[in-house]
Amino acid sequence: MTTDTSLEKRLAAVEAAVAKLQKQVATSESSNWLQQITGSFKDEPAFEEIIAYGRAIRQGDESILETEDDS
């Protein structure tokens, strides 16, 4: 059976781990997620294509979404 001393050591280890996790969460929440991903799609041709699709749709040109199969 576990002694009180062993149980206290285990509890102290758990409390230390929880404190470490809380600190990590607090640090990650304070940073801006948008700044973390900005530039991550640089030089990605597919991303440029997605931007072009979005721009065309916003300007009312939904014909860009039609595929050759739709004809």
What would you note in describing this structure?
- The structure is a single chain.
- The chain is 65% helix and 0% strand.
- The termini are far apart.
- The mean pLDDT is 82.
- It has 3 helices and no strands.
- It is mainly α and 71 residues long.
Could you name the key traits of this structure?
mainly alpha; rod-shaped
Task: Provide a quick synopsis of the model.
This protein is an all-alpha fold and about 70 residues long. The chain has helices at about 5-30, 35, 45-60. The chain has 3 helices and no strands.
Strand content: under 5%
Roughly what is the average pLDDT, rounded to an integer? 82
Q: Given the structure, what is the number of helices?
A: 3
Overall geometry comes to rod-shaped
